């Protein structure tokens, strides 16, 4: 009954959570939904066909089915996006808690590195890192992680600094609690809600950054069915075959909107504003 009341009370969260689950299921069951069509194989005789009964999203220049490629592209795009969010959440939170609790040299080193990262435009620095490492989904994830953890580190540091001198922390120190226990028992639970809200709202923006790197040639490489790469491949046919860009673009748009709205609703639930 309580669960029913929760979902009825938070209708926005419920709607977008269902849509997010549907998107994830689409990626998981891509082979079933695409009727077994291989997104990497095509027939050159079917190249650049408009949407029809046989190919509801049309075909690309290699005769590959766009519908199957969009479905399989959800796997790559979602997996890469969730990997980035998990990595920046973990790395940033860990470094921020260490900097906020210990202060001193640890704080200075971590924050100076953070300042150095923030001094450069994020996407430009990510492009430089991805260019050095080489074009691939893995390297794109690494590049965005290296330039995006700073927000979490600064946020975690500020939250820890607010509570590290509280009486309950001092009592834990006096009673002989070890540092790892204090960090896990007192510091992490106090910063976790805010960091989770930030992570939830970052899913959409991280997906756009990954798609942007692939679009510019620094992410996924052909013939992978990644949405950003599909947009890049469709640029040359924008007027003659607009469906090459329309359907991957709609997939990115819909996914980003759903996860952005889901993140906003999570923020409203975990951090409700007083009336």
Defining traits:
275 residues, 12 helices
Task: Describe this structure as you would to a colleague.
The chain has 275 residues and is mainly α. Helix content is 73%, strand content 0%. The chain has twelve helices and no strands. It has helices at residues 2-9, 11-28, 30-33, 66-102, 104-118, 122-133, 137-148, 150-163, 167-174, 179-215, 227-234, 243-270. α4 runs parallel beside α12, α8 runs antiparallel to α10 (179-215) and α10 (179-215) packs antiparallel against α12 (243-270). The radius of gyration is 22 Å and the shape is elongated. 37% of the residues are buried. The mean pLDDT is 87.
Percentage beta strand: under 5%
The termini sit apart by 26 Å
Q: Count the strands?
A: 0
Radius of gyration from the CA trace?
A: 22 Å
List the secondary-structure elements in sequence, H or E: HHHHHHHHHHHH
Query: Mean pLDDT, rounded to whole units?
Result: 87
Oligomeric description of these chains: single chain
Q: Please mark out the parts with pLDDT under 50 across 5 or more consecutive residues, or reply none.
A: none
Helix content: over 70%
In DSSP terms (H or I, runs of 4 or more residues), the helix count works out at 12
Structural class: mainly alpha
Q: What would the principal axes of the Cα set say about the shape?
A: elongated
Largest sheet: none
